[in-house]
Amino acid sequence: xxxxCVSEGTESTSSDDSLVGTGTGADCEIDETVKVGAVLSLxxxxxxxxGYQQEGIQLAFEExxxxxxxxxxxxxxxxxxxxxxxxxxxxxxxxxxxxSVIVGPTLSNMAxxxxxxAESAGVPALGISTTAEGIPDLGDYIFRNSLPEEVALxxxxxxxxxxxxxxxxxxxxxxxxxxxxxxxxxxxxxxxDEGIEVVVEESFxxxxxxxxxxxxKVKERDDVDAVIxxxxxxxxxxxxxxxxxxxxxxxxxxxxxxxSPVLVxxxxxxxxxxxxGGAWSAASDTTGNAEFITNYTEKYDRAPxxxxxxxxxxxxxxxxxxxxxxxxxxxxxxxxxGQILEYDSILGTISLDxxxxxxxxxxxxxxxxxQFKLLEG
Length: 377
Ligand code: PYR
Fold this sequence. Notes:
The chain has helices spanning 10-13, 47-67, 83-96, 108-121, 149-164, 178-194, 212-219, 233-245, 261-267, 289-300, 306-325, 330-337; strands spanning 34-40, 72-78, 101-103, 125-127, 142-144, 168-174, 197-204, 226-230, 252-254, 275-278, 343-345, 348-352, 358-359, 363-368, 371-374. By secondary structure, the chain is α/β, with parallel strands linked by helices.
């Protein structure tokens, strides 16, 4: 989209001088408070993620406010894991609060509806867990720092093949959710590239709780070396638990959605051996990671997860984009977010390009004794 497409957001194209400061980089000082909207799933199905995201982003903005020069006001809206409510939440932060930039929404399912609204209003939006194919293509103002699911799976499947010698797999996927359905396409492509044969393929819906029909198909075969699962945590917990109680012992491989200590806690013994591709690991020796984990755990009385880590990183990327020209107007943030190169973060070295896409090395982990361990290295 070009500037000519920005029809409704007249405010966004005109620069507000009070959001332009003096100095640049670490010396930037802006008198006006910079408003940041965060639209997160704090209740309903994706609250498992939204709660961590809220904590991660709050921690980062508290640190940034303490560092000085720019004062941030974080305005959090609950999208209630609903497309309808996410549209209302975007409308509020864009028009009521007149935020400079939006972080979120939590799910790709909501991003496909809300990001076009941010685009037409000329408000930059930074997705932190929106991993489906095509998200950055939603517009010039649309970015994500969330490792695409295709990259996570393209790492976890070959790593599992190499360590476990996988030749035949069962693929089980949620066909109703945008993110898991998109991941299914990736899984198929990666399996073809790796020369791995699919011997069982079954789908289900996001809210399903009984997977006997699908798992019986897996159980009936004795040549399934691994199960590849594309599901949100809500279905993952009963599905994996039921698989293990049917004595399906094959390793289970997943992507970003598996990267959750809550899920591992809920699964208990059934989590052992899960192979998880993702963007962040507590076990990674990335810049600031140990300090982040300590500060987060102290503040919230629980350890962070990937959702918290990506939300935390988003605040620092926004701060960097604002400091580049010491300008917190929507247009300047949009221009500078697309120029974040080789940023050394708790997620490792990360960059964003003008198309809004992130580049980052994925991590592959395996659950052992209830803990995530790096599968390689
Ligand atoms: C997504 O909706 O894209 C997630 O990764 C949760």
